[in-house]
Amino acid sequence: MALVAALLAAARIVTLEEAVQTARERQPQLRQARASTAAAEARSGQAFAPLLPQLSATAGYQRTTANAIDSPGAASIPGRSGSLDTFNSWSDSLALSQLIFDFGAGTNRWRAAKARAEAQGATERATALAVDFNVRSAFFDARANKALVEVARENLNNQLKHLEQTQGMVEAGTRAEIDLIQSRTDTANARVQLINAENTYQTSKITLNSAMGVLGPSDYDIADAQMAPVGGEEASIETLLEEAYKARPEIQALEDQVRADQLTVRSVEGLYGPSLSAVVGFRQAGPSVDRLGWNAAAGLSLSWSIFQGGLTRAQVSEAEANVMGTVAQLDLQRQQVRADVDGARLAVRAGRESLGATQEALLNARERLRLAEERYQVGVGSAIELGDAQVALTQAAAQAVQADNRLATARAQLLRAVGRQ
Questions:
Q1: Which residues of the chain carry a pLDDT beneath 70?
Q2: What sign for the dihedral angle of Cα 252, 253, 254, 259?
Q3: How many Cβ atoms sit within 10 Å of the Cβ of residue 55?
Q4: Rounded-to-integer distance, Cα 414 and Cα 348, Å
Q5: The domain 11-53+101-273+310-417 is classified under which CATH number: 3.40.50.11930, 3.40.710.10, 1.20.1600.10, 2.60.120.20?
């Protein structure tokens, strides 16, 4: 909480690294994934427990009658009958059993649970990748919106300057009054654009808070951070795919799930055969705790469900169908990874080219506005020409900001696509 409070303190500049680190600590999706992994590991332990020795103890006390009860067809037993006299009855027992062999049913059940735990661990890593990407994407959106606020503010300042110049020219009689009306309209529109840009920036910080998993104010500022080039971003699709297939946790999770489903098939098939256990027991009983008789026993226990109405066969069929379904998911995931890598690689390439073009357009737009202002001041240019130049500059500046944002987001996307944090 101390980190979150410091991060969201007023006038604090939040960097990309701080945003990502906060999400890794606070994001509920990631905390939920960690809890699911812990639960899956606990289920693995539960599946292993039946393979270990089982020791149980019981103790009992009864106040019971001692009437003799004749069974039909059996010789009569001499004794009291119909008496309401009661007597103490004490008993205790201790039993130890160990599974010896069950055709792999229990062992494969444990191995399947262990594979599912590993699959959940890979799913947790996939969630971490998604959280990192969402934070980076939200951060760069907020950074872009912050830059657009500056674009809108620069536009308003230029419009105010033009308004002051136009007003002086109208008063001097060198410009018509309609130019002044047009300049006032442009200035008012620029104010509206600035208000909207500031609101969009504040809204994007709320989105960033959500991506970080933070409940708190948004009265902080975004650092003007750049997304560094991704190592190998200019490599071939085959090289990037080779890395992605090895690193993407979604593929690892499904491979582990396929293995778990295959082990489940073997576990269920083990139910076709009997299970053998060793049993050791000790029992005491008597009318009082100081008059207990005892017996001890040791032996083997063989159990075999010979026919259950086709239950085991149906369970095997279900497990085999689950294997086929998971294999299909794995093939689909490989296709999705290829699409992710190829799309991110192309987006990075387009982003680099687009950024260079928009920066060149921005330089030309600034030069155009400078020339339009000079022409307007000397009475050669018109208010329309000046307004068009100002609009072109604002649009070029916005396009440059958006191009930079697209490149940063594409690089974040490529990191996720190849399985890097």
A1: 1-11, 73-81
A2: positive
A3: 11
A4: 8
A5: 1.20.1600.10
* pTM for the structure as a whole: 0.83
Give me the amino acid identity at 295: N
pLDDT in tens, 134-164: 999 999 999 999 999 999 999 999 999 999 8
Distance CA 83, CA 86 (A): 8
Report the residue count for the chain.
421
Torsion of CA 406, 411, 413, 417, to 10 degrees: 150
Q: Two tokens at 235?
A: 């490599």
- DSSP labels, 51-89: GS-EEEEEEEEEEEE----PPTTS----S--S---EEEE
Q: Are 14 and 223 in contact (CB under 8 A)?
A: yes
Is residue 419 within 8 Å of residue 248, measured between CB atoms?
A: yes
Burial 191-209 (b: 16+ CB within 10 A, else e): eebbeebbebbeebbebbb
With H, G, I as helix, E, B as strand and everything else as coil, classify residue 381. Answer: coil
